[in-house]
Write a structure and sequence with these properties.
Blueprint: E1 2-6, H1 12-20, E2 28-33, H2 47-53, E3 56-59, H3 63-75, E4 79-82, H4 93-100, E5 105-107, H5 115-124, E6 129-136, H6 148-155, E7 161-167, H7 168-174, H8 180-189, E8 195-201, E9 208-216, E10 219-227, H9 240-252
Parallel strand pairs: 1-2, 1-3, 3-4, 4-5, 6-8
Antiparallel strand pairs: 6-9, 7-8, 9-10
Helix pairs in contact: 1-9, 3-4, 5-8, 7-8
Length: 259
């Protein structure tokens, strides 16, 4: 399987280097597209060239890149592995991607787990309540929509503060680099409206925490995930590129790994 990578930041570069170095059996690096970055040792190219040589493209360039280029990737016959799952909170984007074909859409689990069980439980019946609370270091949660005073107050915070709580679509849009997990949970339970998400800033948080609680016909669930932040990009977790590599391994050698 020839793998192209869209985005060469803290996620895309790790994925591209691992595929280049043979860490994913059955996968070969076709190229990397990133107009802003050009890491040494990676075969950089333009998107049309990438699409002509790839079987699958990993989107690791952010929500805007997925919205802009996702359909083009799929229409070219390449499968698409989505990292910026939060972009799918936008009305109609998932439907647009699914209709683009003939390439197939795959979603990376990113920084959280338990999604397989939530997907299974949702088949029995709709969930009654689902909540995901994300806690990150305060300084990594400053957003462009905040006023200068709000941003500085957040940087200088000395105690945990809940920044926003609301529907998963709203929180994912407000924190596009930090709340992709809320979108992943909503897609897993097949209901955007039932998922409540919250983002909490904690100046003393050594790890990024995601606590998921869910109640439905199949039972009650509680998952807590505590990840180390990426040294290069604290808004993301260090494990994210390795979740992508795990997904690539499953796609490249489907008989050799657990799904």
């Amino acid at each position: 399987m020839k793998v192209g990578v869209l985005g060469a930041g803290s996620i895309g570069a790790v994925v591209a280097e691992a595929v280049r170095d043979g860490m994913v059996p059955g996968a070969e690096l076709a190229g990397v597209v990133d107009p802003a970055l050009s890491p040494a040792g990676l075969p950089m190219c333009a998107l049309p060239e990438l699409l002509s040589t790839s079987d699958l493209v990993v989107e690791a360039a952010g929500q805007r890149a997925l919205a802009d280029a996702g359909s083009q990737v799929l229409s070219a016959g390449c499968d698409l592995l989505v990292v910026s799952v939060g972009a799918l909170a936008a009305d109609g984007l998932l439907e647009k991607l699914l209709a683009a074909g003939p390439g197939a859409v795959h979603l990376s689990t990113g920084a959280i787990g338990g999604l397989d069980l939530l997907r299974s439980a949702a088949l029995l019946g709709p969930f009654e309540r689902v909540v995901i609370e994300t806690t990150k270091k305060a300084s990594s949660l400053v957003q462009p929509w905040m006023s200068a005073a709000e941003a500085e107050e957040l940087r200088q915070a000395t105690a945990p503060v809940e920044l926003r709580r609301g529907p998963a679509r709203e929180i994912t849009a407000a924190f596009p680099k930090s709340a992709n997990v809320a979108a992943s949970v909503a897609l897993a339970v097949r209901d955007w409206d039932v998922v409540e998400a919250a983002v909490i800033a904690d100046p003393a948080a050594p790890l990024t925490s995601h606590v998921i609680t869910a109640t439905g016909p199949a039972g009650e669930y509680r998952f807590e995930i505590r990840n180390r932040p990426s040294p290069q990009t604290p808004t993301s977790s260090q494990v994210v590129p390795y979740a992508v590599l795990s997904a690539l391994e499953a796609l490249a050698s489907p008989r050799a790994v657990f799904r």
